Amino acid sequence: MGHDRQSHPVQDGTRTASRRLARTRRRRRYAMEAVAAFAGLLVLVGYVNLWSEPVPEEPADTDGLPAVVGRPSLPSPLPTAPAVPGLQPRERSPSPSPSPSPRTGSPAAPGVPTTLTVSRSDIPDIVDLTELGRRDWVHWGLGDAGTTVRKRDGSAEIRDLGGKGERGGWDGNQELFRWRDGVPAESADDTPDGVYTCGTGNGFSLAVVADGRPRTATVYLGVWMARGRLDVRLAGGGPGRTVRLEERHTSQSTRVSVRFQAPAGSRLLLSWTVEETFTPHCGNVGLQAVALR
Questions:
Q1: What's the burial of 236, exposed, middle or buried (CB within 10 Å: 0-12/13-18/19+)?
Q2: C-beta separation of 208 from 159 below 8 A
């Protein structure tokens, strides 16, 4: 009995140590399993993040399909051509030299025809500039040599370019002029006024601007004991026309109608000068008006 009582403490100590060792082993196993589980969780999270990131689009190949890693590139198919004797397989006959293609530029716009005709006739007793100059008109010398009256709201295509010699006013013309649409003088009733210049080589220089359409410019002019010369030409070139008016003893007047067509912006030029005088007392050429329609 005494022996049994002494052996119990030894056995109890052994069992206690065994239990402690078992618990220690279980804790280590649990810790290792926890570490392994945590490591697996980290790997899983990284894997999910990797696949959830957007993948940039690959540039398209020349055949229109997106590039794929590892996809072999295929050679471009060669164009087929008829077989030519003497050529080896896969050889192609030489391409013919390209023939020059004709230029297909825009054709030039057709040019405006250039025409110029001149005729002469008597001036009627009364000239209505409003009626005859529906596009434009100009009158010179109303009450004074320095007064010029134009058509109100006209095209302003009649230009006074000056000329040699001093201008004077004259109120003895046999023909009378009237208008109802002038500026600065709005209207005039049957005025005989005009301007003149004396001496050989002196005269008037006028111009009418063309607009590309057929137009008629009518010039009202006269002479006193002189021969006047009217030269008409287009600024762009071509033959001109000349009209002469002569009176050795008194005065004479005439109407010259100039029908013309020229490119827009070009000019019809008129030069009215004293070619010869028949008196030492101011043989001259005179100018009353120009009407355009």
A1: middle
A2: yes
Q: Which residues contact 186 (CB under 8 A, 6 or more apart)?
A: 152, 180
How far CA 179 is from CA of 55, 131, 290, in Å, comes to 88, 8, 13
d(CA 239, CA 116): 9
Q: Where are the beta strands (DSSP E) in the chain?
A: 115-121, 126-128, 136-140, 148-151, 158-162, 168-170, 176-179, 182-183, 188-191, 194-198, 203-209, 215-234, 241-261, 267-277, 284-292
pLDDT digits (tens, 9 = 90+) for 213-248: 999 999 999 999 999 999 999 998 888 999 999 999
- H helix or E strand, kind and range, residue 33: helix 2-52
Architecture, CATH, for domain 115-292: Sandwich (2.60)
Q: In sequence order, what are the residues at sequence separation of 6 or more whose Cβ sits closer than 8 angstroms to the Cβ of residue 174? A: 125, 192, 251, 253
Adjacent-strand bridge partners of 287? 195, 221
pLDDT tens per residue across span 119-176? 999 999 999 999 999 999 999 999 999 999 999 999 999 999 999 999 999 998 999 9
Q: Which own/partner pairs from 12-18 qualify as long-range (CB within 8 Å, at least 24 positions apart)?
A: none
CA angle 206, 130, 258 (to 5 degrees): 40
Report yes or no: 123 and 175 within 8 Å, Cβ to Cβ: yes
